[in-house]
Amino acid sequence: MTWKTLDDMDLAGKIVLTRVDINVPVQDGVVTDTTRIERIVPTITDILSKGGTPVMLAHFGRPKGKYVPEMSLRVTLPALEAAVGRAVTFIEKPDRATLEAAPDGSVILIENTRFTAMEEANDPKMAGFLASLGDIYCNDAFSAAHRAHASTEGVARLLPSCAGRLMQAELQALEAALGSPARPVAAVVGGAKVSSKLALLGNLVEKVDHLIIGGGMANTFLAAQGLPVGTSLAEHDLTDTARAILAKAETTGCTVHLPRDIVVAREFAAHAPHQILPADQCPEDAMILDAGPETVAALSALFATCKTLIWNGPLGAFELAPFNAATNKAAQVAADLTRAGGLISVAGGGDTVAALNQAGVAGDFTYISTAGGAFLEWMEGKTLPGVAALQG
Fold this sequence. Notes:
By secondary structure, the protein is an alpha/beta fold. Helices cover about 40% and strands about 15% of the residues.
């Protein structure tokens, strides 16, 4: 990778336009989850310590190019100030003179970039205006890097640019997972539908040594092999596609792992009566809600032989006990191996983060991405405009 970091830039006396993701949940005018805000603090602190003035650019919600009072970034100020430990100056309509007049040590937040349609259109006029405000551009919003917007892509091409600490950590983790990983590499891909992850599966069978398919997706692959799946969630119209992915894996030397045993129930509910059966014995009136203990044991043994693990999606209906057992146990094994120093583990995606938090192991993985769409597109092998712009 050829992108620069804050360590490569002279920030002394410079205005540093800093694209952050503080699109946080708010209820009754109060931020209810400050995770995204807390994760930008190292970048803001570094810019200040190097003598620069961080001027944050961010979006909030989907105002569709119009001013929407309820989507003003002003609501984030108390949480921002608590996180960075100092006052944050809020500016609705910025200009260069105002920014230059800010006292040393100032932290500045500009109003929602999406209050103009020029942002999402990546309008050169907006990119040029933003560039006129600063001396250096720092992108710390990997989660928005798959969007070619004025504040994520356009302005990066007009100023000396670098990655912030969060963006740097994300890119380094993904490079370690898929770019030039320590092998063998295993990928866990779970979730409900094959259709939402076709590009991901197609790319991974070319990149990893082992592909573990779980969740509702696994049912489609089982059905593709002629196995009964009862009333399980499965995309029967995609069985040909599943077979094509399996055939492709054979040509690339990727071993695909499907459940060896299954946990079935007659209703989709927590603590529903259930039984463990071989993967080829799902009753006609039952649905598969989790992988069984034999599958988990096999995965545990597999993880122990691998050097790198990528995780996206649960192995079963993790939101319903006891159908979270396979996800929890496999995640705990991955966490143990990571703590012992034998495994690089990178995870991402909304359900993934929730599942690993539920298993109590999120803090033990090497890196957990909160980027959602950008993480998935990276895993699909797509070029992310916000990252490409940093590479010049």
